[in-house]
Fold:
Amino acid sequence: MIGDVQRYMQGTTQGNMQGNVQMTLSGVIDSHCHLDFKHFNKDREAVMENARKAGVVRMINSGVDYSTNSKSLELAKNYDFISATLGLSPNSIDGKNDPEIKMILDQIESNASQAVGIGEAGLDYYHTKDAPSRERQAEIFKKVIAIAESLNLPLVIHSRDAEQPALDMVKHLDKVVFHCYSGTLPTMKEAQDRGYYISLATNVCRSGHHQILARNVSLDHLLVETDSPFLSPRKGRNEPANVLDSVRLIARIKGLEPQEVAAQTATNTKRIYNIR
Ligand SMILES: [Zn+2]
Structure:
């Protein structure tokens, strides 16, 4: 009885936007976040603790350039509930010359044994409009793809307004995750049919388009993520605990129990990243 009361109390204190009682969830995985970013410098430990209290058992921290790759590796070394992926984001290449790019690619390759995946990397046509810059993005993305392929590690794709071109570049790979997928339904279906994973971020909580994606994505190919500190479903900075908002909403959209969505997305995440 006391256990039930405690659970009820926990449920009511945890983000309850509808005013109903919400049961706590367990075994949730935030499949993509950036806990190393400076937004967390003042309270990183507290943010991780908050997530763990909410039922998040693992957070996958993704690097986007040299220093964030280093910090991701360090976090994974220091916390057994954090895994790292090493990447080179299309939004991190501006202003970097070829030797600097090569240094990051070498870093990814030589530290990959301590990572669960390669990325984020990809194409961002939203932020990059001119053709030469888009070409350079594609050239660099090709090199990251080659690393993922040669090491047989999953590739984490960042694609914005460029989901189909990104998909077209990776079709020879077996293990692919579309992080923060925001593209069309047909491209999503094609990715899914190839056995790739679709990761929906917490912006699903405030985007009709993402809610349509959530309705249509197969639960067997779905991951959930916060992309913290970005894309908060609430006000201000996002943090991994908020992934529960997505799990609850996706469950409602799909007519499932939240715990089922939590468990299946965690199983999918462990499968693609080979986490035991
Ligand atoms: Zn990210």
